[in-house]
């Protein structure tokens, strides 16, 4: 690097107003028009209600219109952001066409009722996202990342195909709504195959452990594509389980299994995030954890809560990916403050958590009975409190002031979470199953205890003191080797 100036000249940015392809402009305008139309449909749906169906092919319900609004909003932001981000790129038109096609595929998926149409759109959605991951032609690592993602998405589609075929064979229904209507009579080996395949398909799509490798290998994707992926694609696992909620709730043991796999990803995602050296990998591991939390909420029987988390996580991740460049600071290494919590600080955190839990229970009505609602409140409080503490720790406040600042961040955050949950549950009220609390069991207690132990360990810095744990987590979060640049000559310095 010697002989290079600290501010190399890279030339003027391309003029995006001259000789610019019309495709990005038209598609950006079109996707924002879809957002406006989706808002109008959502308002009409809330005020009119009723069933909007088209001959067993399409069924428009509360989940459909809610996802239309969310997906078109994220897509509109990505389209607008990409007009400058992709300026001068030879792949600009292809990128915009694929992004818009992905948006339309997701909109059609959440409206599809016929099982064949649902499966084709699930497959198409995955293939389009794989193309976005490998957008840059000639970049070997990007093409490899797209290939890795495509293999996972094809596996997810194959599992979904097995599940839908088994459900059709058992019920004779060719629509999602028809399967839901006859789910009460399901059982036996064929149902078990279908239910297991549904859960596995959701796990792959949402990058849950042990299927997180495709997500952690996808960092070659343009940042806007990463934002759309983390905000609107990995959430599809929650949509799948919500659509087929009557199927997966048939057996309490299966629901327990969903809680366990969700909790495993939620915990490992948090731990993997703690050892990441770069912003995008950190956000990727965070998504693994957050998707685990979403799936765990579904396993507790609160599908409305899973959709709420899906929406809130989408906003959070879209913002952080699109602003990831601003999070990179060029500063000299400094000695970090030692982790740890005093007795007084622990008491303050406990009091804050109990207050937040009581507020969430008051606003939502969950946690007032001895069922899985108690665990829902517990997990929401724990994850929101951890996020609030993490945000406060990044400030320049003193250690004492931070304990006073945490409630100022946490209480409004959990109140917003609760109010959004209530609102979204109202929109989803026409679905076959929005809330199905399950009885508490020993397994639920073990999961809660492990969650609390890991939370306390991370707050006190125990995870930072073990080199063996650090290396294990770092190895577990490595992307596929074919997607990693290993030669300096492969980097474009300017």
Concise account of the structure shown:
The protein is about 70% helix and about 0% strand. It has about 500 residues and is mainly α. Strands 1-2 form a two-stranded antiparallel sheet.
Report what the structure shows.
- With 494 residues, the protein is mainly alpha-helical.
- Helix content is 68%, strand content 1%.
- It has helices spanning 22-48, 62-85, 92-111, 115-133, 140-171, 176-181, 188-205, 213-216, 223-233, 236-243, 245-248, 252-273, 279-299, 303-322, 343-364, 372-393, 399-427, 442-459, 467-476, and strands at residues 52-54, 58-60.
- A hairpin with a 3-residue loop joins strand 1 and strand 2 (58-60).
- Helix 15 (343-364) packs across helix 16 and helix 16 runs parallel beside helix 18.
- The radius of gyration is 23 Å and the shape is globular.
- Residues 1-19 and 330-340 have low confidence and may be disordered.
N→C terminal distance:
12 Å
Q: What is the radius of gyration computed over CA atoms, rounded to a whole number of angstroms?
A: 23 Å
Indicate the structural class: mainly alpha
- Roughly what fraction of the amino acids lie in strands? under 5%
Q: What is the strand tally? A: 2
Give the strand line-up of the largest sheet. 1-2
Order of helices and strands: HEEHHHHHHHHHHHHHHHHHH
Relative helix content: 55-70%
Count of helical stretches: 19
Low-pLDDT segments, ≥5 res: 1-19, 330-340
Averaging pLDDT over every residue, what do you get? 83
Characterize the overall form.
globular
The major pleated sheet works out as:
2 strands, antiparallel
């Amino acid at each position: 690097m010697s002989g290079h100036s600290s501010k190399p000249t890279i030339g003027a940015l391309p003029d995006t107003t001259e000789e610019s392809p019309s495709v990005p402009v038209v598609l950006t305008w079109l996707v924002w028009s879809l957002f406006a139309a989706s808002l109008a449909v959502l308002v009409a749906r809330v005020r009119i209600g009723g069933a909007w169906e088209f001959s067993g092919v399409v069924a428009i319900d509360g989940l459909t219109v809610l996802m239309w609004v969310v997906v078109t909003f994220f897509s509109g932001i990505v389209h607008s952001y990409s007009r400058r981000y992709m300026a001068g790129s030879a792949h600009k038109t292809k990128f915009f066409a694929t992004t818009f096609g992905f948006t339309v595929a997701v909109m059609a998926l959440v409206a599809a009722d016929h099982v064949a149409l649902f499966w084709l759109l699930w497959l198409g959605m995955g293939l389009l996202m794989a193309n976005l991951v490998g957008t840059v032609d000639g970049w070997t690592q990007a093409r490899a990342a797209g290939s890795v993602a495509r293999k996972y998405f094809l596996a997810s589609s194959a599992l979904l195909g097995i599940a839908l075929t088994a459900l059709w064979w058992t019920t004779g229904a060719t629509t999602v709504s028809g399967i839901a209507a006859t789910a009460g009579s399901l059982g036996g080996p064929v149902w078990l195959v279908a239910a297991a395949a549904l859960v596995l398909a959701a796990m792959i799509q949402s990058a849950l452990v042990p299927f997180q490798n495709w997500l952690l290998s996808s960092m070659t994707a343009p940042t806007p594509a990463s934002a759309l992926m983390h905000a609107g694609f990995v959430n599809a696992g929650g949509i799948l389980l919500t659509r087929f909620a009557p199927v997966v709730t048939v057996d309490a043991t299966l629901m327990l299994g969903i809680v366990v796999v969700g909790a495993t990803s939620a915990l490992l995602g948090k731990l993997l995030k703690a050892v990441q050296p770069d912003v995008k990998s950190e956000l990727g591991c965070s998504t693994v954890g957050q998707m685990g939390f979403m799936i765990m909420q579904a396993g507790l029987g609160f599908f409305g809560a899973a959709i709420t988390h899906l929406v809130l996580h989408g906003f959070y991740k879209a913002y952080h990916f699109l602003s990831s460049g601003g999070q990179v600071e060029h500063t000299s290494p400094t000695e970090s403050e030692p982790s740890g919590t005093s007795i007084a600080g622990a008491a303050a955190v406990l009091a804050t958590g109990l207050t937040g839990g009581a507020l969430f229970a008051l606003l939502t009505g969950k946690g007032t009975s001895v069922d899985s609602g108690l665990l829902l409140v517990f997990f929401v409080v724990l994850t929101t409190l951890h996020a609030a503490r993490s945000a406060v720790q990044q400030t320049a406040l003193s250690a004492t002031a931070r304990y006073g600042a945490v409630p100022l961040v946490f209480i409004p955050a959990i109140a917003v979470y609760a109010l959004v949950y209530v609102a979204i549950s109202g929109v989803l009220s026409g679905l076959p199953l929005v809330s199905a609390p399950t009885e508490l069991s020993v397994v639920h207690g073990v999961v809660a205890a492990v969650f609390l132990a890991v939370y306390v360990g991370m707050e006190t810095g125990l995870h930072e003191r073990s080199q063996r744990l650090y290396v294990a987590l770092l190895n577990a979060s490595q992307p596929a080797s074919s997607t990693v640049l290993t030669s300096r000559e492969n980097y474009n310095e300017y």
